[in-house]
Amino acid sequence: MTIKLQDKILQLSIKTEHTDDTQADDEKGDYHFRERFLGEFHRAITLSGTADAAKIETVYHNGILIIIIPKVKA
Q: Which residues are paired to 14 by β-bridges?
């Protein structure tokens, strides 16, 4: 994951890789299969005000990316 902030443009790039995860429980007869795909995501977002690039924070949890961008104090 790459996050860049230049002027008022926030650029986000994410690259994922394909993985398979298989779990089988013969005693119970349970079978779980999880698959993730290879791909790239690029997005550029124009911010309405000036942001402090040094204080950007990110949190990724359960497939959700949160980006916290503090404003520059005038």
A: 41
